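How a chain folds remains the central question behind the approach discussed here. In the encoding step, the backbone of a single protein was reduced to a row of integers, each denoting a local shape. We regard such an encoding as a compact summary of how the chain folds. The sequence in question and its structure tokens are set out directly beneath this paragraph:

___
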Amino acid sequence: MAGNNQASALDKEQIFGMAEKEMEYRVELFNKLTHTCFNKCIEKRYKESELNMGENSCIDRCVSKYWQDCRVILELVTNLIGQLLGSNRPPM
């Protein structure tokens, strides 16, 4: 019984660690996206309190392209890992 409790505590700790890493990754991704699209789309001298139509369109396209790129990269990395694991070669 005690061994079972230790295993489940370890599993919970691993799950919590994985969730924490996932949250850190998502926050970093959001911060990079915000920084990239803001610098690309927003004029340095604010003229209005609201975004204009051009800025809105630019941000919409920027965010869309950023997410598309992230999905492509994730797919490539996933395929690479699958190939490495499938060939029983250790990762580099």
The chain has two helices and no strands.
